[in-house]
Amino acid sequence: MIAHNQHQQHNTWLTQSLIHDLSLLDTFDIFTDGSWSETGPAWDHITHNSPTYTGSAGLVIISRADNWMDLPIITLHIYNGPDINAISAYSMELLSIITALHILTITNTTCTIYTDCQAVVKKITKLQQTNTATRANTSDATLLTAAIQHLKSRGQLQSVKGHPERTQSDETLWTREMWGNHLADKAAAGSLTKSYYQYNDNSPFTFYINSLPSLDAPTLTPLLSPPNFWYFGKIGGQYTSRSLIDSVHHNRLTTYLQTRDQYRQRANQPPLWQTLNIPLASTLWQLTTNSTSRSLCNRLLFDKHWHGRNQAKAIDDPALHALISKCPLCVQPDSAQHWITQCNHPRAIDIRKSTIIKLRQQIADAVKSLPAYTSSIQYFGTSYLSLVTGPNIVPDIWRGLWTASQLDSFRTSYYQYIPPLLINSLKKLFLQLGQILTSSCITIWTARQKTIYEL
Ligand SMILES: [Zn+2]
């Protein structure tokens, strides 16, 4: 929806005590940071099975005075990033910057905002210089536009190197910027909860921390809007990181899948389309990168092509229906399932055989590149192959169509620990195997069309 910020400057999340504390710092700078990480079972991330993430933002306000180390350091932690549809740390970095800018707008002051996210600084600078509006397909368009609007009147961005502890282990040599970045990282992690901070037990410095109550990202976002700001957001006015185009696609896809299932219901079939993981299928068909064959891929994926079963749907005459619903290459009833996994025409059989060889090869390659986890990778590979060829065959998997419970079938227990190296290897292998299957569907379909043509 399109929302409008009608909040005037006095209607704000900033408390009077914070405004008072800020005034005690006299002039100050703000250090910001965002964090993003995977949560929940590792298998959900390996198989794209509605994986969960945690995303947060942190702000640290430090005085510009020479004795800044002796003055309180104000910190803020913002949580619940995924609830504004964020998909990476980038959105969290932006959120922390907008929160900082909003503090400046409310307190009618200015400062330098330090961030270690170069990508955000580059993007905002580019938009400022070209003076162009964000496009409908830009993610985080609302956050970006709000940032630019704020920056017109106050504040400036500066990038700093992240993680000073990695380049200088002796913290007594750190500059104010290095401390600011380090503390912003801690604030984003939500770990500055005490009234003081000491880098380690031996550190000669102790900072006074004025930690503000943590804030929930979706609740906070509508309040961060510059005055008179029109933006694209959620029903409640919360920001969304999703681009306008993505939101439209998302809603259209939901409606489309519901409609397909309504047709099934009329034919007394259980719902199917809404149970399938379509974003995963789209990744496995490489729909966003594969523009040349996109329309064919779409038809095969959504089973909208002209095979016998689909042709027969419109025909009422029983004899004609029976004839047309048969596979043109054999006597079996035709369907996506049939031509992909069952049809006995020799070309299809050959393609299926070579597909299985490719799958086995990919699994062997994964084992070769991570021999320490041979048995785990092989166990996964065997489970995968049993879904592809039997005994637990699920024909839809060839078309990249998985249900949540099928994706969950690789997991042996809820709390199964999987080392990060193995997670990455399985993530890659899962996509590679799925892509081999979808490209085989194209090959089988093309061979079938060719065979029909030659009849
Ligand atoms: Zn057939």
Description:
This protein has 455 residues and is an alpha/beta fold. It has two domains: 2-242, Nucleotidyltransferase, domain 5 (2-Layer Sandwich), CATH 3.30.420; 276-454, no CATH class. The chain is 47% helix and 12% strand. It is built from 18 helices and ten strands. The chain has helices at residues 16-24, 42-46, 89-107, 118-130, 141-153, 164-167, 176-188, 217-220, 244-266, 278-284, 294-301, 308-312, 318-324, 336-342, 346-369, 374-389, 404-407, 420-454; strands spanning 2-4, 28-39, 52-63, 73-79, 112-115, 156-159, 196-197, 207-211, 215-216, 230-232. Strands 2, 3, 4, 5, 6, 7, 8 and 9 form an eight-stranded mixed sheet that branches. Strands 1-10 form a two-stranded antiparallel sheet. Helix 3 runs parallel beside helix 5, helix 15 (346-369) packs antiparallel against helix 16 and helix 15 (346-369) runs antiparallel to helix 18. It is elongated and about 90 Å long. The relative contact order is 0.11. The mean pLDDT is 89. Residues 327, 329-330, 332, 338, 343, 345 line the site of zinc ion (ZN).
Draw up the topology in text:
Blueprint: E1 2-4, H1 16-24, E2 28-39, H2 42-46, E3 52-63, E4 73-79, H3 89-107, E5 112-115, H4 118-130, H5 141-153, E6 156-159, H6 164-167, H7 176-188, E7 196-197, E8 207-211, E9 215-216, H8 217-220, E10 230-232, H9 244-266, H10 278-284, H11 294-301, H12 308-312, H13 318-324, H14 336-342, H15 346-369, H16 374-389, H17 404-407, H18 420-454
Parallel strand pairs: 2-5, 4-8, 4-9, 5-6
Antiparallel strand pairs: 1-10, 2-3, 3-4, 7-8
The chain binds zinc ion.
Zinc ion is lined by residues 327, 329-330, 332, 338, 343, 345.
